[in-house]
Amino acid sequence: MAKKLKEGDEINGYRITRVFGPGAMAISYGALAPSGQKVFFKQYKSPAVTVEWYRGYVRYQKELHRRVESGPARNYCVRTIDAFEAVWGGRNYFQVFEFVENGADLAGIFEREREAGGGRSPSPPFDARTWEQHVIWAKVFMSGINALHAAKVAHTDLKPENAYLIEDRTIAAGFQLKLIDLDFSVLTDETAPWHGHQGYVGTDNYRSPEHFTAGAVPGPASDVFTCGLILYQLLSGRHPYWSEDQSEYARKALAHAAERPVLGGTMPAPASNGAVADVLHRCL
Known about the structure:
The chain is α+β, with helices and mostly antiparallel strands. It is built from seven helices and eleven strands. Strands 1-2-3-4-6-5 form a six-stranded antiparallel sheet, with no helix packed on it. The chain has a three-stranded antiparallel sheet with strand order 7-9-10.
């Protein structure tokens, strides 16, 4: 059973410098690697080493990381540095990732925009600067998803918190993207080891129809749906299905109830507002 680490603890040469807190599947930390590099450190509660699908999960993670690192997806996904088993209140599984900073995730960006707007998100028409940035972020985000799918990996838990943007004026787009939290992503040509043992990971207001449909398996189509939600927010200023009641969210998502979006500005050529609005609507 996972025993929570605390600041100053050291395991396999990694010294814990910050406790971020527990999530549903893992406890997250900031740490220093033996080299002195700052890293993001995860201690897994699920899978526990005792469950029958644990060894399959470890193998699955290795293959996922190999696919990401061997192609263009490596430019868009957080890099895995290490993975190991160790004893800390029992045997635990740990993974170590590059520490992403000097930027903000899309959720944080949306929140800052709401604060700047007096508690309201931007709504059409956007000011020129906001629109230009949102279009760039949308393009960078979809480039990353395209690269991930080309590696035969579906994220299946896409949400604004999992898209981290780092300003980089040395590249044409102006921003680097880091997709994070691929721990329970799906290899699109292999059955996930947890299939039939536990559900597929998703987040309130961003789950796809496959997350709600008995017998369905989230995959690339699930990412397309969730990309539609995120792009809808980026380019129209609102989430079409947002609800505090997740049964109501599920009802709307399964009914394909979204209205065709009204974009917050004029898409640069060769795109057109009509074509982009149609694509976002079809995603949902």
